[in-house]
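re: that chain from earlier
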Amino acid sequence: MGSSKRRAADNSRGGSSTDHLHTLHQRLKHALSLGTTRVSDDKERKWKCTDLEIQKHVVRSLAAFLDSSSGHASTHRLLKDSLADIVEALVWILHCKSEAIVGMAVNVVVKLVSSNSSMMQLYLTDLINPLSSLLCSNNLEVATSCATALNMVLSNLSVKREKQVWEIVKEAKTLIQIIRIIREFPGGTQPIENFQEMVSLLYTILWRWPPSRYFVWKDTILIKVLEDSRIKSHLSTKVAVLKLYSALALCNKVAKELLGNGETILTMMVSCMDVSEPLAVRIEGFRLAQHLVADEQRCIKMTSLCSGPLIKAIIGGMRVWRLGSGKGVNDLVSLLDEACRLALITRWPGEHHNHFWEQGIDKVLLDLLLENFDKQASEHPLTPQAQISIAQQGLDTNFLIALRPYIWEIFGWLAVHCRKDFRPSADRNELYIDMLITCACLSFVEAICKGCQISENDDTSRSESSSRAVLVMMHSSSTYIASKVRLILSGVLEIKGNECLKRLLYLLDYGSSANNFGSANIPKTVVELVCLICYSGLPEYQKNVTRGDGIRTLVTSIRRCLSNEVCTSRRSFALHFYHNVFYERTCCWMTAEEWEGKDALLFYSLWGLAELVQHSSDIDHSHIKSNLIKTVQEVLDNISAPGPRWLAANILSYFGVCGFPNKHDKGFGRALEDKEHTDLQLLFANGESVSVHKIILAVRCPSLLPPEQFPQSAETTDNFLVKDVPRKCCPMLQKEVRLSARVDQQALLKLLDYVYFGYVEAGEDLARKLKTLAKSCNMQPLFLMLCRKIPKWGTPIPSSDFTDALGPLGFQFADIILEAEETEKMPWACSFCSLLVPHMHAHKFILQSRCKYLQALFLSGMQESHSQSIKVPVSWEALIKLVRLIYSRKLPDPPFGCLWDNMDTKERLYELKPYVEVYWLAEFWILEDVQEACFTTIISCLDSDRQLALEVMKLAAGFSLWKLAEVAADYMAPIYHKLRDSGVLEQLDELLIELVRDASVRLSQGSGGFSG
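^ sequence. v structure.
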């Protein structure tokens, strides 16, 4: 009876609350109606009211409604009914900038956006301009509230509105105002809260809009203020400034310049990561470090400056769980997560690996994996079975389970980059490493047992990371780790190893069938492939692994990957490694492709195939062999990532082909056969000889050149001036080299095949001789293939880039000078000679090998063919790009990202003009690939800046490049009428104006033009 009365009372209160909310809503609607007027004869009504009392009435009514509506079920419907009018009124009131009301209005905006962010999406853009205009208010409370409101508006924007809002932010000069306010902070009267809000707002802009980053970074006064504030201010300011640095470091160019400044930024960063700092500061310090060290080159730079202190800070962060009793669990986990992310710098080789081992990384990782290992492990050595038992019990507790993928990733990379002679420094360290390996092997078996039950991303990430750790440990450079993991894995598999293998083979066969092959199943298939490769490394299971249709299954899988049926990168399921907003927000980033490439299934299928081919005694079936070789050759022809190419080359080595044959790049093989422009003879003991090119040997195999071919001074680096070497020395360089009788002629000829063609075919007997010669000539890639060894992770592919030949290394072999046009008077000095016009020293042999026009010219017998110089009718900037492209087969990129965004149209045109020149010249020099590459580059620049179209059209017309002129006209078509009315088109000839007019007509008819 009593409970019934209580329910009735509750219902009565609920009804009363709803009635009150409706009353407040009616008052709000009435207040809004007081400021609504009809604009001229338009039926539409607009909120425009200058009456201060009505403005106050609206703001107070809205504040009362929002205060009462929190958590109420009917709020959404009521608010949605009036939201357009509310925002319109707020925008008007903010624009009026009345000191009596504007502070209240801004606070109401904060309430409105914070409690109704999804509903406000359509209206957020309307608030940006009026809020931006109030940032410079003399009323510091209003300015601070505006920064808070604007920050909230920008933070709640949907991604699809970012481009539109960036234009509004630029037009309102929001960034300039924020910078001005922060710069005025030192010595001023602003409260610290105002500074923090401005810094926080600037962080949001930098995070969302890449074009802002370089602009802010170049403001040296602002950066100095930030640095001073970080040092002198309290905790919250220090955190805000660190976040700002992290956002700046999302720009690759800024990050490089930060590191270029050296110890200042790194000392600050490492000190913020120290155990003496509050957790919030340490977390931001770790995030800044992650952004600064996001690729191998930056890792090398950072660790060369502060490897010891950096690793000490990382280890300190990873130990926080053991030392952090009494502190907030969430903060500790956040710090652990950031420290583990930073510890992934182990994926790159370097001195920092030694520091990790010295700081006890093995014990730290084990403490994060097994909660009470120290209590369970006695002082006496543990038997293998005891280790397995303790490890299994520890893993079953799911202690810090979210960190396990990091643990396996870190430990795997440490194993990859170990020295060959690595051994634990003490018995206790040996136990830690053994336990880590045992835990990885147990997780490996668990991954197989789960099989098709792996469904969640977390499960996949854990299974993939532990299995992969076992795989890379089995292929570690360290003899100790490689042998230990095989021993422990064999022990773990002793009871049910064959049962697991049988299940694994079934799952792979099932997953590779046409009905089940798809992107949804690929993460599981990758885990199964990794497990299969590990089994292949254990002698006792190799017969069972190679038995059946394994080779056929993997070849089919590779062919499907090559035909783009599926393509799943590791990034999509190794979330611990890649699931980071950093990768989504970076800019100015052009890093090399990951070693394993973009297709995890292709990579591990190739690795599995390499293992099966290695352990198969014979591949007799001609159809399988033919299909296998054809498939592997397609990988070499079409895949650029080093890892898959190395694995493909490893497979081919079992069929007598060593190297990287590629239908798209035949190397310099024909020149070796035709003996064109050879300048050195290698004389065998039997009197026979072979003619070669010194420049090819200097770049590809310098061991075959006698030491006198390299003058002593040529060994110096950037400061070396070749003009200091008397020119008369060059003709005296040897033209013949007599080889020792111990040099096998056939082996040397095959070595030259590899040097010129990029690959070599050799039978078993000849391969043994060639292996000896390759080792003595330091041809490590060839030696690896002849040994049929899978290369160490990260081993680069031998490059076909001859750019080094344009420097001191190749000058003494240069036999032609390419002179550019003197477009304007410019100071000129050559590092190699005294010629005063812009020019480059090049090599006829390389030029003619890659350019049909120059080949015909040099062989024509005309005067130019004997000349020591050729005038190239392009500017110096264009000549550099052209020659570098010929030598490297890659067109240099124009500035991009923040650098490009912060250039005006004149600067951008200066950068673009050389590509137009090379595009024109490529047609006459019969360089179709070059022309296509230049055209693509020009189009990408026009996409980013339509204002370039007019100037590009004029350039194109000057070179009679009518296809390019028509494309430029298409870009101008959407603004044809504006250009015509403004008189801009008067700069063009009538023919060009007609092109733009025609493009505009086509666009209006829906059949052409670039309207985006």
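The chain has a mean pLDDT of 86.
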